[in-house]
Amino acid sequence: MSLKSNILDNKQQFLALLGLVCVVIVLSFLSEYFFTANNLLNIGKQASINLIIGLGMTIVIISGGIDLSVGSLLALTISIMAVLNVVHDVDIVLAGFVAVTATLAAGAINGIIIQYGKVPAFITTLGMMGIARGVVLLISRGNPSMSFPEEFLWIADGSILWIPVPIFLAALAAILTAFLLKYTRLGREIYAIGGNEEAARLSGINIAYVRIAAYTICGLSCALGGVIFAARVGAAPPSSGMGYELNAIAAVIIGGTSLSGGQGKVSGTVIGALLMAVIANGLNIIEVDPYWQSIVIGSIIVIAVMVSNMRK
Questions:
Q1: Sign of CA dihedral 278, 280, 284, 289
Q2: What whole-number distance in Å separates Cα of residue 128 and Cα of residue 113?
Q3: Chain segment 86-127, per-residue pLDDT in tens
Q4: Are 261 and 63 in contact (CB under 8 A)?
Q5: What are the structural domains, with CATH classification, of the chain?
Q6: Per-residue pLDDT tens over the stretch 246-291
Q7: Buried b (16+ CB within 10 A) or exposed e, 103-128
């Protein structure tokens, strides 16, 4: 494939990459602290959580759905882990396994309700967002003071092959997701049901299995993001994950994944997550009011969708 045709086929990803480069250049001139090794590593750590959640969101959106419960599922993982470990003195590894399993199950429930209950994904996941957040407040009693043991914090502060653990896990998750979508039968079926569900059904694809698998994987990504978040914060605030659904959707849409399903790439989501992290970090460094960040993120989503629709 020639360079020109490659650019045309991945136009929005290239536009997002160009935007990322431009933002980095501008912020480098605005602040001497931006383009430093420590700050770039910090950006990578900040992007890791949103990227991991965004990978699950990418799979769901490619399949023709959406998941508004990702932030609450992240908080659910953290709260279950904290209550088991801090309140009931369960080993942190076992507590983490139970928390991840519970969140994965919540993702699967989303898929089951959407498929068999015939409830639109928007409504199903909106309801799960409220349920999961309610469970978080119920089991934690709104107590933000539960802290994790020192050895658990290695996930945020340690390194693997000289790479910070959050960045290593995010990169590994991106590679596995890209492999899943490009080289496995399930990945091809996810694209198929997102592109044309009726044609996929007539082709013999098990729609129920694929849809439930997509939401289960999204639940797993929320759980992994929750573990990293908990290690970075070192505690279990009940407000964890608020607004993360907006950030995840923004990263996915900026990267060129179509909201109508059937189209999208992991590389685009990686670029989108990095762009979101760079913007947030840059606004903090140049001391812009943090409330402006939500305005910027919301504007980016609208512009990205407009560009995507105009491109079509």
A1: positive
A2: 10
A3: 888 999 999 999 999 999 999 999 999 999 999 999 999 999
A4: yes
A5: 41-311 (1.10.3470)
A6: 889 989 998 889 888 889 999 999 999 999 999 888 888 888 777 7
A7: bbebbbbbbbbbbeeeeebeebbbeb
User: Rounded distance, CA 263 to CA 12, Å?
Assistant: 12
Per-residue pLDDT band at 230 (split at 50, 70, 90): very high
Closest CA to 244 of 59, 40, 69: 69
- Lowest mean per-residue pLDDT among 7-16, 73-82, 92-101, 206-215: 7-16
Residues in CB range of 75: below 8 A, 6 or more apart: 132, 133, 136, 226, 238, 239, 240, 241, 242
3-state SS, one letter per residue, for the chain: CCHHHHHHHCHHHHHHHHHHHHHHHHHHHHCCCCCCHHHHHHHHHHHHHHHHHHHHHHHHHHCCCCCCCHHHHHHHHHHHHHHHHHHCCCCHHHHHHHHHHHHHHHHHHHHHHHHHCCCCHHHHHHHHHHHHHHHHHHHHCCCCCCECCHHHHHHHHCEECCEEHHHHHHHHHHHHHHHHHHHCHHHHHHHHHHHCHHHHHHCCCCHHHHHHHHHHHHHHHHHHHHHHHHHHHCECCCCCCCCHHHHHHHHHHHCCCCCCCCCCCHHHHHHHHHHHHHHHHHHHHCCCCCHHHHHHHHHHHHHHHHHHHHHC
Query: pTM (2 decimals)?
Result: 0.93
Token pair, residue 287, equals 């001391």
